[in-house]
């Protein structure tokens, strides 16, 4: 079967347009997924804010800095759970922005959050769980934004 110039031209334009349409489709799908992920993060930020409104001591600097491994009151046990939620959210945001410090901080104000809850992060009770539960790069990110 001989191929004339018109057939080759038609075939080539079909292949090229299919390729371009596929690339555009993949880009749009990835963008849509990223936007959906961001909306989920906003929902989690809202949840965190609602908890801090319901239990204002969660964000009270005096309370946060007094966290100790030896406390077992309901307030501190509740705060312990809150901090797990906070650091899990921080990790999700860190992953979403591929560890880009500026984007993370612009999106969430992470430096302020890390500073506020550093006593919990550094407690002996939580160090082993943090090392086992979070990627080392994320731990380095938190530690680099957690002044002594």
- Counted by DSSP, the helix tally is 8
Main sheet attributes: strand count, strand direction, barrel closure: none
Mean pLDDT: 89
Question: What is the percentage of strand-forming residues?
Answer: under 5%
Structural class: mainly alpha
Quick gist of this model?
This protein has 148 residues and is mainly α. The protein is built from 8 helices and no strands.
Describe this structure in words.
With 148 residues, this protein is an all-alpha fold. It has one domain. Helix content is 79%, strand content 0%. The chain has eight helices and no strands. Helix 1 runs antiparallel to helix 3. The protein is elongated and about 85 Å long. The protein starts with a helix and ends with a helix.
Helix and strand topology:
Blueprint: H1 5-54, H2 61-65, H3 74-96, H4 101-108, H5 110-116, H6 118-122, H7 124-133, H8 136-144
Helix pairs in contact: 1-3
Labels describing this entry:
single chain; about 150 residues; mainly alpha; elongated
């Amino acid at each position: 079967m001989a191929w004339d110039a018109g057939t080759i031209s038609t075939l080539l334009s079909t292949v090229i347009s299919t390729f371009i349409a596929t690339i555009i489709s993949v880009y749009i799908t990835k963008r849509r997924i990223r936007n959906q992920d961001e909306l989920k993060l906003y929902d989690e930020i809202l949840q965190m804010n609602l908890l801090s409104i319901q239990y204002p001591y969660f964000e009270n600097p005096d309370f946060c800095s007094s966290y100790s491994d030896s406390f077992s009151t309901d307030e501190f046990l509740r705060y312990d759970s809150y901090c797990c939620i906070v650091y899990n959210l921080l990790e999700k945001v860190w992953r979403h922005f591929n560890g880009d410090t500026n984007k993370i901080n612009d999106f969430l104000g992470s430096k302020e959050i890390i500073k506020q809850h550093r006593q919990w992060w550094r407690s002996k009770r939580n160090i082993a769980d943090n090392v086992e539960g979070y990627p080392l790069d994320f731990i380095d990110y938190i530690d680099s934004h957690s002044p002594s």
